[in-house]
Design a protein that fits this description.
Radius of gyration: 16 Å
Number of strands: 8
Helix content: 40-55%
CATH architecture of the largest domain: 3-Layer(aba) Sandwich
Strand content: 15-25%
Number of helices: 8
Shape: globular
Distance between the termini: 17 Å
Strand order of the largest sheet: 2-1-3-4
Number of domains: 2
CATH class of the largest domain: Alpha Beta
CATH topology of the largest domain: Rossmann fold
Length: about 220
Amino acid sequence: MSKKIFVINPNSTQAVTDAYDQALNVLRIPGGPEIQSLTLSEGPPGIQTQLDVEHVTLPLVRLVKKLDAEHGEAVGAFVVACFSDPGLHAMREATSRPVLGISECGVLTALTRGHRVGVIAILRQSIPRHGRMFGAMGLTERVVAEVPLGMNVTDLIDTDRTRAGLLRAGQQLRDTHLADVVVLGCAGMAAHRAWLEKQLSIPVVEPTQAATAMAIGRTLLGW
């Protein structure tokens, strides 16, 4: 039976889904699990506040239950494609399948690429929310800094502005905070990973790729 991995964008901006879906093409391999990218229609345009996080939790749980019921044993794993990992633990309670959050997986992947991890956020108000997650993971000494772009999720469709912000934030993380690996702190930044890594000459982790790669491994291994 062909297994399916559902990568769910909890905001309603289809451009974000399209950006990371294209970045996942490299993981669509013959004989591997099918990767399906979905957009949560009930979600706000961007997950930018704690209220947004709480707002999408129950809709995500309902979606996971629906997909479980429709696809049964064909479900390999779920990925929450938002750097706030909204609904992650509630979704894990709602299904027996693996549920992976891109923030958790992105940072864990970064730890294998360098010692001092820097994160690029979209907004300044995202940073305390992310910091609570890193603290719960026991990683406050390894995540040395987070620098915001000062852009909303929907602004990321502007390639020139996004790349200018990513370069500024990445250079600040590398040169001021001495980060030796950078994590992109929003799924909507996915199209720019390779470009930014070339500009910075240090590893750049795209967290939706990281989480989906882990989901593939867990699906194939039956973990």
